[in-house]
Amino acid sequence: MNSIIQLVKDKDPVEREFHQAVSEVVETIQPALDQNPEYRSAKILERLVEPERVILFRVPWMDDQGEIHVNRGFRIEMNSAIGPYKGGLRFHPSVNLGILKFLAFEQVFKNALTTLPMGGGKGGSDFDPKGKSDNEVMRFCQSFMSELFRYIGPDTDVPAGDIGVGAREIGYLFGMYKKLRNEFTGVLTGKGLNWGGSLIRPEATGYGSVYFAAEMLATRDDTLQSKTCLVSGSGNVAQYTIEKLLDLGAKVVTFSDSSGYIFDEAGLDREKLDFLMMLKNVRRGRVQKYCEKYTDAVYTPVDPALDYNPLWNHKADCAFPSATQNEINAKDAQNLVNNGIGLVSEGANMPTVIEGIDIFLDNKLLYGPGKAANAGGVSVSGLEMSQNSMRMAWTREELDERLKMIMKSIHKTCLEASDQYGATGNYVVGANIAGFVKVVDAMLDQGLV
Ligand code: NDP
Fold first, then answer.
1. Atom 30 of ligand 1, residue of closest alpha carbon
2. What's the gap in Å between 321 CA and the centre of ligand 1?
3. What is the pTM of this model?
4. Based on the domain organization, do 165 and 209 belong to the same domain?
5. Cα torsion for 270, 276, 278, 282, to the nearest 10°?
6. The domain containing residue 87 runs over which residues?
7. How many helices (H) and strands (E) does the chain have?
8. Quick check: is 178 catalytic?
């Protein structure tokens, strides 16, 4: 185990998030390696941590003042053992190769858990859409796609959204792909409803994370009714996490953006959520503005001098980190435990550092790791691909039912694998081993490629 982690560190010493994602998986799969000695002789771990292909390209674009900018574009085609590469595009200034490799690596196992035939990939750019005009975003997306189109396709690699890439960006990207290829295919998911998109896709990640939480609680004969919940983020995942929590009778008291967070002790309701959605999706504003309308709510700006995030330091029952990676450090994890949190369901990818996960597990929290709890988004993306291939569309009710069934099945798979490998109730072990075995067996079937 240690030699694989060391190998990854030696090869790419600066890719910290990738090291973290590999360590988290590798440290939990020992029982599967012990039961299957052929995995070792096939050098399966060495093959899994090396992307099948990495594409890195220049993205030049012009702003509204006529000034030229140059960003970097990436696509990591990580593993195609069980289907075409599938995973989102992230536009955020922090994007680099290490972050995208961690996301692509996680995606491989997550996609395997969904039961749908999808390999793992991820991509994006260090472009920051914040504060850019629609025309600037369009020119950037067109330039990005004018290179990426060579490598993707409905049976090869099917990107979707992620941080900074929503319906607007997917529209511009799709338009350019269609023009360059002269074909109308399901090459991207997260499309607009009237041109090939799927109902429930925008809601799927947030709803799925709440469905997963409900399944975890059911193992202790409990429900989300009247639970007080902390949510971080205010983008796609956070908004629909809040919506489903309200539907199920929970009380949500926090949300955030990268500048600060809101604590609304009275709890959000439908009207407040509508305002938040309008603020973020239409006005593209900051969460601080929420307090101008709801004056009892408190806004706390990010304080770089603090070594913890005060959002995670409120009394509550459940936590739904839905913003970004490593947003819960060890101190935050301890604060959550001290404040009585009994459940954490990760809408974001890898939001908790490894030491934080250990604190959750040591304290017997119901802890749903991102690769299981947030798999609802890519699951409905898989259903969007099916609908596109069949040239048909399921109803909202059908899709929500399928999403629920998939989340139920992912939960069951993780629980059963945790049981089989001697770690009952540990969803980290369950998710990692179940995803790992499925992908690795497919790799072995397909020979040394
Ligand atoms: P959005 O861009 O819609 O929203 C991201 C939210 O997180 C915003 O509120 C943003 O604040 C905040 N945020 C981003 N970066 C940081 C940071 N460095 N520090 C603090 N806050 C930050 O993205 P999504 O909601 O789609 O994605 C959120 C998380 O969920 C990510 O980890 C993503 O990988 C994961 N995920 C998303 C899926 C999807 O279907 N969209 C599927 C599975 C996982 P600000 O506005 O200030 O940038």
1. 348
2. 10
3. 0.96
4. no
5. -150
6. 51-185
7. 18, 12
8. no
